[in-house]
Amino acid sequence: MIINWKGWKIYKCFFWYIHHLKTVSYSYFCTMMNKNRHNTGSLSAIIPLVTVIVTIVAYSCASIGRPEGGPVDETPPLFTGSTPAANSIENTRKKIILEFNEFIKLENVNEKVVISPPQIQQPEIKPNGKRITVNILDTLKKNTTYTIDFADAISDNNEGNPLGHFTFAFSTGNTIDTMAVSGTVLNASDLEPVKGMLVGLHANLADSVFTSLPFERVSRTDSRGRFTVKGIAPGTYRLYGLKDADQNYAFTQKSEAIAFHDSLIVPRFEERMRQDTMWKDSLTIDTIIERKYTHFLPDQLLLRSFTEDYYSQYLIKSERLIPHKFSLYFAEKADTLPLIKGINFDEKDAFMVEKSLNNDTIHYWIKDSLTYRRDTLMLAVSYLYTDTLDKLTPRTDTLKLAIRKTERNNTSLSRKKKDNKEETPPLPTVFLNMNAQVPSPMDVYNYITLLFDEPLDSCNVSAMRIRHKVDTLWENVPLKFERDSIGLRKYYVYCDWVPKEEYEFETDSLAFTAIYGLHTNKMKKSFKVRSLDDYGAIYFNVTGANMPAFVELLDKRDKVIQKVPVIDNKADFNYLNPGTYCARLIEDANGNGVWDTGNYAEKRHPEKVYYYPQMLELKSLWELEQDWNAQAIPPDKQKQDELKKQKPDEDKKKKTKIQ
């Protein structure tokens, strides 16, 4: 039988109150009746009173929850004992029971709880009421200190108050190690805090240990990138960071993010004093007590996390969406283009090749009409691909590239219409599509961009004009026409603009002709150049960084706006729109103008990055000159919180305790 306990309690409570109310109500009722035997109005007044009393009693019985309000419970659970005892020695138990003073819960055990030395077979960790049971499944090592770092995974069951930085330790030997080292892990390219990265120590100082053996002591970074490795024995160590994809506590996959510290780590400690303040009330100090405590060093270690420039190269796909063009898509960038060998056509001088910046996307525009009219093109593609040993190896694929079915149907339909003269309507002139990107208003430093649907065969620059409005007349001004260094179909038109003036950009028909015979139609666009009063400027005087270097100006979303090299310790940004800016400096060790990652085998760190530690508010006509010492502030304090994508975990919300 199912019992509704809430309803049963209300039922019992109601009749208990009715039973005890009978005597008082009956006595009061009789008295009133005797006094008002002949007064019917008084009797009618009594009946509602009794009804109200009964209703209030019933409602009070139904409200069995605790009343709202009361002080907020902000006290975390209290550790009261364990089996074995905390910091015990010569322990052989693999089952550990932790006791607390109230009901507790565990959150994100796999992410937050870390055991040292690391366990290949993950232990079982289960909460139950006021206790936590830990079953260690790996064999316990002799003469070893074990630490179970719960971070803030433990909290009370009702209010969620976390028991932060709780670590349980024991030793299988006759001593227990208590040393600790601390620091921060930042993403090397943008100084973002790295959350959830393993940080480990090796007493074996050989370089190969990081790639072959699991860590001896380990920790995991929190949302601020902070870590503390505990339970360390005196000695000398190497420090590493690892995003451990395969959970073997070693750098065995090239895709894993890593970090390594150049200097040897020697844990130590020193006695320090701190002041504890006792308050009489919120404004009056009662007593200041000095207390001695042990502080472990080093505590400001910095690791810069990076992923090696590793990739798995292969041909993702090939396609022929239109008859006169086919495309190859590769998984990664390449130093060279693939070699094409025609099987049912002659590949010599057959294409115009359009490649991406990294050679990972390549379009082949077929010039010969006899070739692109074939329904299927057969070709051999030779390139370097990554084999099972992660080495680049020559490979040749044979491809059959057929015209898409829709293209074939369109071709057949057009042929049928041509055969039937009565059904063939007059065809409109088809022009080569040209996308003219002419900003309006035009920035004083900007230019016009022309993008064509097909590669060009010829350009008539004399059929292209820029006119400047002087008073009421339009005057031709000099222009410069250039093709993009990478894009086959992209061109630029440059001109020395006069601020606040009006211009026209105009092209005649037949100004541009594509390799398949189409030409552009005439076009005209008008625009105005912005005033110099619209802009501001920021000038950095850079010190504390190795040269060569460059500075990237960033918006408040950490997006790059401009990039300039540091010349004579100066980085100048002109013609800036009003807004909020920050800046990032990159030590460009190889001088290639981009940030480069590191390589562990070569013991090469990623190129160092620094952030200007303030957000800069720029207004029109302002010129801000900033002195920037890249070493003045520790790297983990440089990047502004509003720029960070990895935000610190929010404090758990405190609920009002219901009593």
Automatic annotation (TrEMBL):
The keyword Nucleotide-binding does not apply. Residues 636-653 have a biased composition (Basic and acidic residues). The chain crosses the membrane at residues 41-59. One of its GO terms (molecular function) is carbohydrate binding. Keywords: Membrane, Signal, Transmembrane, Transmembrane helix. Residues 409-428, 631-659 are annotated as: Disordered. Pfam families: Big_5. The keyword Zinc does not apply. Residues 73-172 form the SbsA Ig-like domain. This is SbsA Ig-like domain-containing protein. The lineage of its organism: unclassified sequences, metagenomes, organismal metagenomes.
